[in-house]
Structure formats: structure tokens, C-alpha cells
């Protein structure tokens, strides 16, 4: 806790490294179990059990203080993380990361609608940059003005859900980062399981390696403790310390990490389209960061 307060910028950059490489253990668990939902489901569940104490406190906060905005914000955050995870399993890493990181653009629109924030010149330019980046990624030169496949829709929807969650947190009473993390993680296993029923999703077969001693269990624990916990907790914790502008500047680093890790560790072709789209989305974040309202 002392480290977080002393070096908030560094801890957020560290979370970007985890989020930018989040797909590595995620895909390993998926590939190692023939796309069974259970290894990833168990990872989410393990973390929820580890955070049982703050989880109980979170439920007390909701029930005793009627902090329903807090509950709703955590539900939408859980949906966002579940959708983001599913899109990373289905699609190209670079494209998914870029499409998800349109979330500050959706956040600007939602802030105008629900928080009565004004559309400044910077915000309008940021939104334009974001939409141009979106059109480049989905292939406007090929005649596509809207996402042409399910993966793109899932990635964009994940970003929208994340933006909604942060907007709702603006309306909620202040809660700690660990409370936000525990309650969000509580909902993720169920939501991720529901995504199995979207065509092309995980299967519900219990693979043979889950019925015997297998290295996959080590990765299940590693994914829960070394990827999920720090990535989610550090973001929610720094939401209470840094202004949203600084947070969005630092989180844009995740796009860079995601693209570089995909280029180094996969056979994905990172072409001019991906690079230009990423540049415009990052610029949209940087232009608009000074106009966002602090989130409790």
C-alpha cells in the first residue's frame, strides 16, 4: 500500500505490462485444455476466494449503505473484462487491444450524457481521432464502416462496458480499490461462463488434464495471482490517487505492450493499418485526458 501511494505512476505502468501480456497465460490455459472454459474459470474463482474478506465488506457496503452504483459499476467492469478476455481468445491481439482502447472515446460520450460534461474542442478532436482509428482498423478502404465480424464487436463492446463502469463509479460513493477489485472479480467467472454459449466460444467439457496432476494447475494459479490480481487492483487503486487524465496517458502504454508482445510472440502480421490505427487511438487518449472528471 505504501509503495502504491509513493509511486502511483510506476504501479500503473506495471499494470499496463500485465494487461498488455494478459493474453499470454489466457491463451496458454485455453490451448492447454482444448478450449475448455474451466481452467480460466477456476483462475477467476481462485482470485475471488482469495479476496473473500474485502468481498464480504463490499457486499456490506452495498446492502447497508445502499451503494447500488458501486455494485452496478463492478458488474459492468466484470462484463468488460470477460468480453475482453473472450475477444483476446478469438481474435488478433493487436486489433483487439486497439479496438478495446477506444473506451476513453465512449467515456467522453457517456460523460456528456450522464455527467453533463461539456464537449470541448479537445474532446471533439479526440473523438474524431478515435473514430478514424476505428475505421482504419475495421477496414474502411475495403468498404467496411462497421465491424465485419463477431470478434471486433466483442472487443468494442468490452471497451464500451468498461467506459460505462467508470462512468457509474463517478456516481457511486467512494470505495477502496480492493473493494472494487473483489466485487468485480466475484462476477467475472459467471459472466465468462455465459460467454461459452456465444457461437465459437469455450466449451464446457472437463479436459483430462484437469483430472490429474498437471502443470496447467500451476498456470491457473499464476494467472490468478500474478496477472489478474495486480492488473485489476492497480488500476482501481490508482483511480483514487491519480487524476483521470494521467491515468489515460499511462494506460495508453498498454496498447504499445500488447502490439509488441503480439509481434514478438505470435505469427500475427502487424502492418501499417494496425500501427496507424493504434497511433490515432493513442492520440485520442492523449488529446482528451485533460478534460476528464476524477473517478471516486
Folded structure, characterized:
The structure is a single chain. The chain has 296 residues and is mainly α. It has one domain (13-291). It has helices at residues 2-6, 8-20, 23-31, 38-50, 52-65, 68-90, 93-100, 103-114, 121-138, 150-171, 177-194, 216-239, 244-251, 253-265, 272-288. Helix 3 packs antiparallel against helix 12, helix 4 (38-50) packs antiparallel against helix 11 and helix 6 packs across helix 11. The longest helix has 24 residues, at 216-239. The model is unreliable at 291-296 (pLDDT under 50).
Give the gist of this structure.
By secondary structure, the chain is mainly alpha-helical. The protein has helices spanning 2-6, 8-20, 23-31, 38-50, 52-65, 68-90, 93-100, 103-114, 121-138, 150-171, 177-194, 216-239, 244-251, 253-265, 272-288.
Give keywords.
disordered C terminus; 15 helices; 296 residues; mainly alpha; globular
Helix-strand makeup class: mainly alpha
Q: Main sheet, how many strands, which sense, barrel?
A: none
Low-confidence stretches: 291-296
What is the number of independent domains? 1
Shape: globular
Strand content: under 5%
Helix percent reads: over 70%
How many extended strands? Answer: 0
SS summary, helix count = 15
Instruction: Average the pLDDT over all residues and give the rounded result.
Output: 83
Termini Cα gap: 18 Å
* Rg from Cα: 19 Å
**Secondary-structure element order, N to C:** HHHHHHHHHHHHHHH
